[in-house]
Each structure stands twice: as structure tokens, then as C-alpha cells.
Specification:
Helices cover about 35% and strands about 30% of the residues. By secondary structure, it is an alpha+beta fold. It has two domains: about 270 residues, no CATH class; about 180 residues, von Willebrand factor, type A domain (Rossmann fold). The longest helix has 25 residues.
């Protein structure tokens, strides 16, 4: 048995607004501010939740029990995060089918004059990466638009010749004119709808643009209006924002539409998009909604990349790509004032999840949360069932410390308070990294390297705080 004595302190890290920096871009930017500019990263430079994004759970498949279009996994860790006496931190992740269904795909491409030479080259390489993954079972076409709308390639099965034609059209794209965004999207939806429902293909329009849609325009001809109408008919829309965010409000409304997916590719994430290709933009689940039902005597104390906060226990996750296994973190604890022991196979609660599959059908699933008592990874601050949940529990400390640094930059907390958290988090990440460094598995070694790198990053911030360094200004 493991004693778990908890105070009422809660740690809540909610989902960051989609209009701000995301994922790897946020972490890289924070490193750049510290390492290159010698400044403290402000609230505009870093999302606390960014540190979770690289911590993925293994992909499930039919052999390991994943038979539907979405499979939820969980791995708990018993930890004592900064600012809390102790919590059960549950690493959540998703898997999808190993083999994607055939596609009825329309590429809708903004080729207006706002695209500079570098961005146009990035766009062309991104499109070529998507095309390279198509095969004869897929149907694809290309629409590009500036101040006019052009159907460059009509729908065809993607054999080698058709892929070559599509690549040729992409390479011939020129940047000129204004942006007829709504008209271009309407033409793309028309092509997709014309072949919808044939041969069990999943119908989707991929819109690539730099142009922020007009959020206030919600009539049937607007971007959101078209997404809602066609989404209900089973034709989904993925909006790929190139180099800039299109706005958190737009992202929220789009992913509330059936089949709607928002894919922000910031300046530092376009290269990542080039690597991921089709899996980045074609989802296997949309409108994912998750509800946590704690066992009797337990409560939710927060969640990162979940948007969970007390007293709410429902989360809206939107859409997931083919291999979007980015970890979410759920914090559970005994109810306030409780003193409890964790025993092997103890039930902690249940998660109910619902989503729309690629064809727009509603699916549901349920996952029991339990503490197995098996903790192959651990040291004083964390005991975990898996390598991923061990790393996540330590990166959780980094997130808390970095959030305090951002608050010190805005004057919400004293720098000395933030520095104390930074020092503790750095020490914990270093200790965890040194534990794993003694092990031999490549995954263990990789996580050790990552933990030690981020510990050094926190020590650098500690030094800046000691020297009274300033904070990076917004827009710098």
C-alpha cells in the first residue's frame, strides 16, 4: 500500500487558446528567448501545456485491442507536483486505426499575392507531401483561388499518373491577386459533394490559407456556414493556417461543426507539418467530447490539454489526426481533507468519451481508471506505471514553474516565488533524468536526455532571475 495524504491545493492547467502559440513552436520560442536573447519568456512566449506535447503513448492497433476509429488509453503516476501535496496524474492518449479508409479529397489552396516566395515554397512542399501518400483507392482534386477560382485538377483515382499531374499543378502555382476565400471553398465543397457516398470513401476538403476568415460572417456562404452545412451532410473541412493563427474564436466554432478540424502551423511548425503530411490534416475522429466520472471519494483537480477545471469534469477536444497521440494530463485526488491509501487495482473512476467517426457517425466508449500498483519507474517525487507517465509527471512540474515565470513577468507573482518553483522543478527533472540515464532501453535514454535538457533550460532561467534579467516583450 502507498499512503496518499492530500491537502486541498489544486493545480489546474487548462487548454491554451488556439489563437496563441502552440506546442513545439511555444517551447522552441521560449528556449530562444532564454538562450539567445538572455531574457525571461513572457506569457506570449510560452504555453505551460507545451511541455506535454512530446509525450506520446504507444499506438494501439487491433492486436492490442483497438478496433474502432478512436481508442483511449490511460497510464497513471502517483506524484507530488509543485504546489500540491500529492495527486494521481493520469496520462491520457488516443490511437486510431492502423489503416486509414480511402479518401474523397479536395485540396483548396489560397494562392493570393500575400504568399511570399518562401511561404509559397513551403505550401508547395506541404501539398506534395500530402499527394505522395495518396494511392489508387483515393479520389483527389485541386482547386486554387486568388481573385478567381480555378479547378486545376478534376477528381481522379490517384494512380501514379494522376499523382504526377497533381504535383505538376502544385508546382505551377503562382502567388498573385486577392483572395476569393468563400468562392474557392464553395467550389471545393461542390467537387467533394459530387463524389460523396461512393465506394466508402471519406469525404474531406483541405483548405490551405493565410487569410483569416470573417468570424462575424456566419451565413450559408461564409467559411463557417459552409463548414456547418456540408459537415452535417458528411463532408468534413480541415483548415490549415499557414504561418499564423486564424483566431481562437474561429478555431472553436469550426471544431464545433461536424467534421471541422483546425490545424495551425506556426512559423516553427511548418517543417513539422512537412514531415507529417496527410496524417496531420485528415482526422479519424472529430467532435471528441470526454467526461471524467471519479470514483466515490475522489475528485478531479484539473487537466492539461483537456480544459478540465473544478467543478467542471467535461472536456471538449475537437478533432484528432491519424497519429495525434499528444498526451493530455488528468489530475485526480481524494476529496478535500481525505486521508487515503492506494492499493493495487484500486478504482479511481471512469472516462466516458464520444466522437464522430470519419463518416460522421456517432461513436462512444468507456475506460476504467485504476491504479495497478506496478511502478517500474520512479524516485522520490513520482512513481509511475509507464515511462510516459513518469516523464509527464516531471514535465508537469516544469509547466507549473514556467507558468509562474510568465506570471512574474506580468507582476502577478514575485520573481522570488517563481524562482523557487524553477529551482525545484529543475532539480526534479535532473533527478528523474539521472535515474533513467542508468537504464539501457533507447526510449528510456531518449527521455533521460530530454529531461536533462529541460533541467538545464530551467537552470538557465534560474540564473536569469538571479541576475534580475528582464522579460521578453510582446511582439519581440
Amino acid at each position: 500500500m502507498i499512503p496518499l495524504a492530500l491537502a486541498c491545493t489544486s493545480v489546474t492547467l487548462d487548454t491554451p487558446p488556439a489563437s496563441d502559440l502552440t506546442g513545439l513552436e511555444s517551447l522552441r520560442r521560449a528556449h530562444g528567448v532564454v538562450d539567445e536573447a538572455g531574457l525571461l519568456p513572457g506569457v506570449q512566449d510560452f504555453h505551460a501545456a507545451a511541455v506535454y506535447w512530446s509525450q506520446d503513448l504507444p499506438v494501439l492497433d487491433e492486436a492490442t485491442g483497438c478496433e474502432g476509429s478512436l481508442c483511449l488509453q490511460a497510464s497513471p503516476a502517483l506524484a507530488s507536483p509543485l504546489l500540491a501535496d500529492g495527486q494521481v496524474l493520469v496520462q491520457l492518449g488516443f490511437s486510431g486505426p492502423a489503416v486509414r479508409p480511402p479518401l474523397n479529397l479536395v485540396l483548396a489552396v489560397d494562392s493570393s499575392g500575400s504568399l511570399g516566395p518562401e511561404r509559397l515554397d513551403q505550401l508547395q512542399r506541404l501539398l506534395e507531401g500530402v499527394i505522395a501518400e495518396l494511392d489508387e483507392g483515393d479520389l483527389a482534386s485541386l482547386v486554387f483561388f486568388n481573385d478567381a477560382v480555378t479547378v486545376a485538377n478534376k477528381p481522379k483515382p490517384m494512380d501514379a499518373a494522376a499523382r504526377s499531374e497533381l504535383v505538376g499543378s502544385v508546382r505551377a502555382l503562382e502567388s498573385l491577386g486577392s483572395t476569393e476565400l468563400e468562392a474557392g471553398l464553395a467550389e471545393a465543397f461542390s467537387l467533394a459533394s459530387g463524389n460523396h457516398g461512393k465506394d466508402q470513401r471519406v469525404s474531406r476538403v483541405l483548405l490551405f490559407t493565410e487569410q483569416p476568415p470573417k468570424l462575424e460572417a456566419e451565413d450559408a456562404g461564409s467559411v463557417l456556414g459552409q463548414a456547418r452545412v456540408h459537415g452535417l451532410a458528411g463532408v468534413g473541412l480541415s483548415v490549415v493556417a499557414l504561418g499564423q493563427e486564424l483566431g481562437g474564436d474561429f478555431a472553436w466554432e469550426l471544431e464545433r461543426s461536424a467534421g471541422g478540424v483546425y490545424v495551425p502551423l506556426g512559423e516553427d511548425e511548418i517543417e513539422l507539418g512537412l514531415q507529417q503530411g496527410l496524417e496531420l490534416v485528415v482526422p479519424w475522429a472529430t467532435q471528441i467530447e470526454l467526461e471524467v466520472l471519479p470514483a466515490e471519494g475522489w475528485e478531479v483537480q484539473g487537466g492539461a490539454l483537456l480544459g478540465l477545471s473544478e467543478p467542471s469534469e467535461s472536456a471538449w477536444l475537437g478533432g484528432a489526426g491519424v497519429t495525434d497521440r499528444r498526451s493530455r494530463l488528468l489530475a485526480l485526488a481524494p476529496e478535500v481533507g481525505a486521508l487515503r491509501t492506494l492499493e493495487p487495482n484500486q478504482e479511481l473512476g471512469r472516462i466516458e468519451v464520444s466522437w464522430l467517426d470519419p463518416w460522421g457517425a456517432l461513436e462512444t466508449d468507456s475506460l476504467a481508471l485504476s491504479w495497478s500498483g506496478q511502478t517500474p519507474y520512479g524516485y522520490a517525487a513520482s512513481h509511475a506505471e509507464s515511462l510516459g507517465s513518469f516523464g509527464l509527471s516531471l514535465f508537469h512540474d516544469q509547466a507549473i514553474a514556467m507558468d509562474a515565470v510568465a506570471q512574474a513577468c506580468t507582476g502577478e507573482v514575485e520573481p522570488a516565488y517563481a524562482q523557487g518553483l524553477v529551482q525545484q522543478a529543475a532539480s526534479r527533472l535532473e533527478a528523474g533524468g539521472l535515474v533513467l540515464e542508468e537504464l539501457t532501453d533507447p526510449a528510456e535514454q531518449a527521455l533521460a536526455e530530454e529531461l536533462l535538457r529541460e533541467a538545464d533550460f530551467l537552470y538557465a532561467i534560474d540564473a536569469l532571475l538571479s541576475a534580475g534579467a528582464g522579460c521578453a516583450e510582446e511582439g519581440s
